[in-house]
Design a protein that fits this description.
The chain is α/β, with parallel strands linked by helices and about 325 residues long. It has ten helices and 15 strands. α1 packs across α6 and α4 runs parallel beside α5. The chain is globular, with a radius of gyration of 21 Å.
């Protein structure tokens, strides 16, 4: 009974702020589909890749031999978490796009040794986030867990205040933002920080194009299934009639823009009905629907982009292979 009582007490310590209303996601999908499918080139936000099935497929991708970013970032965290905690001096850790917060546990273990008081997991899925927050509160007694349900493209201004804060943005997710979008994100984030507060950022680095291509065009076809899953989301949520198998996955590396471009390529000319939008999407044979970009970075580029937003790069770590990087920057 004592164990059960402790579990309940820890669960009660969790605070949850909800900034996403019921129907917000569907309305955003409708708006994105109307603008993205009725223009050329066609493009949709990568956020629609991540329903429950898509999230599981992406988890499968991170375990593939070709896909290195997740392993490399974890290597850095395992080697440098204690150093990051000492340098940051953070009392509050905020993780954007936290998911299960698995990698962040490496940071939490180190930060607790340095006097961390609270952890703020920030994600768009309320049910998923509540479960993850409860588990963290149980596993880290004495740590105040303050979960925030929100979209980091719209709700950065709602981040809780209190204690010296460090925002953590891992996984190379910043690479899904194109340059102008990325600049807005950094500026908005920096505007919400106090001097001395900072950002820990994960970025995938530029490397051999063959390795990049292999990472996003795996031999087992898992990434292809993940990419086509977006069409299943559109079918389910908007009543569309995409023939999923009529689209081929391709993810070339665009050297000019410095990004991998996830594409779905129509294998034949056809028309897709979108009843919920009262419109049609016309696809020519060979026409591309872009579902994601994944930008790759040079060290000086990361430093310059952070500096433009008022964030001073203080420390930079890579894995032994030099594939991935973590940057620690502070607002002056």
């Amino acid at each position: 009974m004592r164990v059960l009582g402790a579990s309940v007490a820890r669960a009660r310590a969790v605070t949850v702020d909800v900034h996403v209303r019921p129907g917000d996601a569907l309305n955003a999908l409708r708006e994105d589909a109307i603008t993205g499918l009725c223009r050329r080139p066609k493009e949709l936000s990568p956020k629609w890749l991540y329903d429950e099935r898509g999230s599981q497929l992406f988890d499968d991708i991170t375990r593939l031999p070709e896909y290195y970013p997740t392993r490399r970032e974890r290597e850095i965290l395992e080697a440098r978490a204690a150093e990051i905690a000492r340098l940051s001096g953070a009392e509050t850790l905020i993780e954007l796009g936290s998911g299960t917060s698995e990698k962040t546990r490496l940071l939490l273990d180190a930060f607790m040794e340095e006097g961390l008081r609270s952890f703020v997991p920030f994600d768009v899925s309320e049910s998923f986030l509540r479960g993850a927050a409860q588990r963290l509160a149980y596993d880290y007694p004495g740590l105040h867990v303050h979960a925030v349900v929100g979209d980091f493209e719209r709700h950065l201004g709602r981040l809780p205040r209190g204690g010296r804060r460090l925002v953590v943005f891992l996984g190379g997710t910043i690479g899904n933002f194109k340059p102008l979008q990325r600049a807005r994100f950094f500026r908005e984030l920096a505007d919400g920080l106090e001097p001395g507060e900072g950002l820990l950022l994960g970025t995938d680095l530029v490397k051999c194009s063959k390795r990049l291509f292999a990472a996003y065009n795996d031999s087992a076809g898992v990434t292809a299934e993940f990419n086509r899953n977006m069409l299943r989301v559109l079918n389910r949520e908007l009543g569309a009639d995409f023939d999923v198998e009529a689209f081929a996955h391709h993810a070339p590396y665009d050297e000019e823009n410095g990004w991998i471009e996830m594409q779905l390529i129509a294998q034949r000319s056809h028309v897709v009905r979108l009843p919920a939008l009262e419109c049609f999407a016309h696809f020519e044979e060979g026409e591309v629907l872009r579902t994601e970009v994944s930008c790759k970075f040079h060290p000086r580029q990361v430093e310059a982009e952070l500096a433009a937003a008022g964030l001073h790069l203080t420390a930079w770590w890579t894995d032994p292979s030099g594939d991935f990087a973590l940057s620690l920057a502070f607002k002056r």
